[in-house]
Amino acid sequence: MGPEWDIDKRLYLPYMTREAARQAVADDAILLVPVATNEQHGLHDPLHLDIDNVLAICLATAEEANADARCVVAAPVWFTISPFDVTQFPGTIRMREDVFKDALNDILESYLFGGFKKIAIVNGHGGGTEWHFPEVARRLNRKESRLFPGKQIPAEAHVVTFTWFAFLEVFAREEIMAARDYPEGCADWHSGDMETALQMYLRPGLVDEDKLLTGACSQVQEFAPYDMGRNWFHQYIIAAYWGPPPTPGEQDTMGGRPDRATPEMGRRILDVSARTIGRFVREWKSR
User: Fold this and answer.
1) In this structure, what are the phi and psi dihedrals at residue 272, rounded to the nearest 5 degrees?
2) What is this structure's pTM?
């Protein structure tokens, strides 16, 4: 990864000409659509953290997978639903749920009617969107077009969705925990060690390392989710079941130990992400 001008234009749809995009469709390329938001991320991380991290993960995945399976990355969807009070945190964007789902639907339909057959929505945010994305995907997989009334979405179209950190903790849990140096005592949640480490690696200088103060700490729970990289997917097993209020830290509205983050941790997380999601891309491509 590197500056925008270093992104391989063969991997990134916005950098392609219309004929190059047409060729990607002809190659039956799998399309990764990174979706996240701009919102507050504590005293130390930039507002664009979620979207920048997930875009990097998608690009690294496409680069890793393209040796065996054509895979390209769409323009990121920058704005989603955020739980934070926009009057308290300037720059945070909050969209209405229906507006967001309609916008995401139209973006994805545009790609499907353009000829892409397999699309993965890669969620880099959470914040409740992990429950909305499958709703949009299911409707599209029923071939119900809202963008073009009277038309049907192509029969061969298939849309899937996953949140990157839940995906990794299920399919690469040991590698993620090793990259994080097996943290104990304070679980990661929002703008903690994982997200901060990725941003340190990707964008040196954007993380304010003088303000890496601890956030609220969730305690270990057997059934409730308490850690973004360890059991965040538990929320899908027992829906709407959460643990007790976390213990306050040195800064509010974020959780975990960003002071544990390092650029090397971020590099390892990005590498695990590309390899693991890349395996999924190759499996899907082979079907």
Assistant:
1) -60, -40
2) 0.95
